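[User] I wish I could look at a protein chain and see how it folds. I have put the entry right below:
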Amino acid sequence: MTVSFRRLSYLFGIVYSCALLCILIFISLRFFKDERNIAAVWLSFGFQIAVLTLTERSRAYILAMFLAAAATMLFLAVPPILAIGSAAITSAVAIWSAWILRNEPDWIKGRDDRLRPWLLFVVSSGLIAPGVNALLGAPLATIAGIVPATGNAWLMTAVTWFISDALSVVVVTTTLLRLGSVKLRHLPDWREMLTTLGVIAVVAALFGAIAVQDNILPIFLVAPVLVVVLYVSGTTASLVCLALFVTASIVATILDDGPFIALASLSRFDPIVMCQIYALAIFCTVVLYAGLLGERLHHHKLQLANAHIYEMLAKRSGDIVFAADSYGKILFISPSIGEVLGVPLQTAEMRGWKNYVAKGDVKKIYKTAFRVIRTGKPVSVDFRIIDAKGREKILEAIVQTSSAGKATIVIGSMRDVTEQRRHERALSRLSETDPLTELPNRRAFDRYFRAEWNRSFAAKASMSILMIDVDYFKQFNDTFGHQSGDECLVVIGSAIRGALKREGEFCARFGGEEFVAILPNTDEAHARKVAARVLSAIADLNMAHTESPYGIVTVSIGVAASRPLCDELDLGLLEAADAALYLAKQRGRNRVEGPGSMA
């Protein structure tokens, strides 16, 4: 039953379309003919393109409309060769044009009014299709004896045929495509629909009045009025109004009335041709404005969609996404920044981001931004902020650039890494701290030694190293036990640290019972004084050591000093201090020795 109903509906559509086609051919040949017996608008051509574009299964439509067109023209006494030939040519060209237009389904349904689909329509259906029709149809009119076999007559027939078909596409195809794609369930709000119908009615009355005026000035109001309708009620309403104006003006001109008759009296041009060309020019104007408006609307929708997607991702992401111009003005930032700062986003925006950045880090942020803009490479940077409760937090930002036309935008993401950095610092301290003495370990010494070497080289300053070893420590362990040995090392480490008075002086446990100290900006003479102070501080501990000839715990110290001559770390300084320590042990321990300055 369903299949039968669909078939009946399909057959009814074919019959209905063929009936309308016959009526349009009849109107074109009986009512739209000019004094040269040529149709001013060949309405059936635009109708065929529209029907074949909107119809999915179009084979039966093609055959039926071809037969209907040929039969109607034969009935109206058109010569058989012209009737059948022009019907065949028109059907073939309409098939091609419909096939081209089907590649733009969104434009057909009125969902895409950008310039590209309009340009495709104008070129394919408004220029190429009528041109082919005219070039192939004019010779048929000559063969049929309607047009004299002269060059000028043939050319004028082709031009007239072309304009007639182009005007049919402008008036019929565009209107039917837009109206044919409207579904009852998709109709707009009834108030909006009544407003649109009211606008069309008012404009139709205005155009009707203009079409019968003998004054030519009112016709220059047509284009502005259509553009206003385009902005107020949309493309479909504007195209309907254009179709009404074309119909009214052509009928008035055929009846020897209206502004184009008055214009013809002032020139040598045919009034019908002037009316046709003016209508095509107005259509091009409307299409241009429709395309520009469509482009603007399309870009606005894209920007709106991008903004909504970006905002949605920013809200759901744990990171704080931001965009700023090259002057530091924030263009966009995730609402989650308010949670980090402890204030609503609007409050943060009003106060300004600089007021939340810790003192000294604003310049750091600007330097990072300038570096990113200059190099074009992403950069990661940590900076501190102060939230609404005065708490310091650390944010990690990954920054890169994005070009927007000629402007450069800095974009990136941030995250609160306060706890992460706290844990990292704690782990770093643990990894660089000797668990027994709580002094820096060998790893920390290596890092500090390299940094101080580079600093001394840059400052062209001297630096010294003290190698410190506990005397007879193995015997102390064997006599008093390892627990007492550990306590001895802790006390000695504390005494060494207390003996280093100047800022930047560094001591670490080197390994076993060995300690090391780094003395910045210190030559060998001053290093010996510091070493003597360390020696005295440990002797003052007065820790009993029965296996030592001194009766107390003592240390031996090797001193070495150098002025770095290059930025490449030279371990010779460390080796010199170790050699001096060995010399101190050889000479009886509990003493300071040094090989002299190595500079």
Notes: The chain has four domains: 13-181, 190-316, 317-422, 432-593.
